Each structure stands twice: as structure tokens, then as C-alpha cells.
Amino acid sequence: MDFFNENNIVIFDHPLIQHKISILRDKNTGTNEFRKLVGEIAMLQGFVALSDLPLENVEVETPLETCMTPMIAGRKLAIVPILRAGLGMVDGILSLVPTAKVGHIGMYRNEETHEPVEYYCKLPSPIEERTIIVTDPMLATGGSAIDAIGQIKKHGGKSIKFMCIIAAPEGLERLHKAHPDVQIYVGHLDRELNDNAYICPGLGDAGDRIFGTK
Ligand code: PRP
Ligand code: URA
Fold first, then answer.
1. Is 31 among the residues known to form the active site?
2. In CA terms, which of 20, 25, 93, 183 is 20 to 30 Å from 35?
């Protein structure tokens, strides 16, 4: 399918990311290690996803002379995790940009219809001036990501990136069609959704595995 080669979709093939995702998939990986790996993968993905952060030249005195040298312009980044599982990716990105602001969007999937239900939205202002990176480890049907990004746009968000660890082809296609302007970063593109809209082979329920719930 052509859209996988669109400029706005990056599917990572870095060996470190693939290795860490394989450990996440293992049902014997415990909560502590799972949570740590989700953070590490988010940091590795963030390094690439943030390669277009705006810079400005500032004056710095080295031991030898004064020079103009680039630093990240202003405090322009907002990280917006989709609750709950997206929270697991926040610290990894904050370790790259500690001054980023963090918003939250609460969504859960209705277990029967698989439709997303929104229960919370709080975004840092001025949201329209920020680069926004929406995080959620799982892009399954795409419903949660599509609605979360729709909500951010309603609040004025313009420059939006979406970062997930595993995507199903169905969800990736839906998200790209609904929000073609959004840059999408995917750790691994899996085979398909099953009848319960779970990603296969996937890693199970990301929220439960990060937070140790069932
Ligand atoms: C999971 C996941 C995504 C959503 C993906 O959340 O973290 O938000 O499902 O599914 P979709 O692409 O079909 O919308 P879940 O509803 O399990 O909530 P949780 O993070 O609170 O566990
Ligand atoms: N949400 C998850 O956590 N896992 C899936 O496979 C699908 C939705």
C-alpha cells in the first residue's frame, strides 16, 4: 500500500528499537522491565521525531571567545500522552527535552464496540504555538488517536506528531487518512487486528502491562 511510503509516516527499522520491541512482546516480561523499555523506545523514537525542532542562535562565551551557537528555540514542545498507556512514553521524551510541557487526553475503548470514549482533556497553552507530540504505544483501529488529535485540533493545535510503538495496518491507514497533516512515527508495523481489535502478534494490553493491572 502506497501510503506506508508517504513522507508523513516513519516506520523505524533501527535494530535497537526492534530488539526492545521483541522483549516487550514476550508475555514473560514483567511490569518493571516493560515500563523501562517503553520509556527507552520513546526516547530513541523521539530523537528522530524531534529532528526538526526549531533552533535559534544564542551568544555563548567559550573559554576562548564569544560565539553565536544554536539552541532549541523557546519552550515550544508539548507532549500529550493518551491515557493511560501513552503516559509510559512521556519520561523518555522528557529526558531529551526536559522543558517540554505535558498535556493529557483521557480515552478508553469501549470493550464491545471498540469505539473510543473521551473522559479528560487538559492541554498546555498556547497550544497553537507548540509542536505537539501525541504518544500512545498502541495504534489498533486508530479510533483513539484520531479522536485525540481531533480534540487537540479543536483546541487550536496545528503542528502535531503522533508516536506509537506498534501499529496495525488498519489503524495506520485510518489515522493517516483522517489527519494527513500529522507526522506518524511507528516502532513496528504488525500483521493485523484480531476479532477483538487487538493487534497481532502485538504485545497484549499496553496499559495493563505498564501499570500492572488486569
Ligand atoms: C489502548 C491503547 C490505545 C487504544 C488503541 O488503550 O493504549 O489508547 O487502546 O486502540 P484503538 O486504536 O483501537 O483506539 P485502552 O483503551 O486499553 O486504555 P488504557 O490505556 O487506559 O488501558
Ligand atoms: N490496545 C492495546 O493495549 N493493545 C492492543 O493490541 C489493542 C489496543
1. no
2. 183
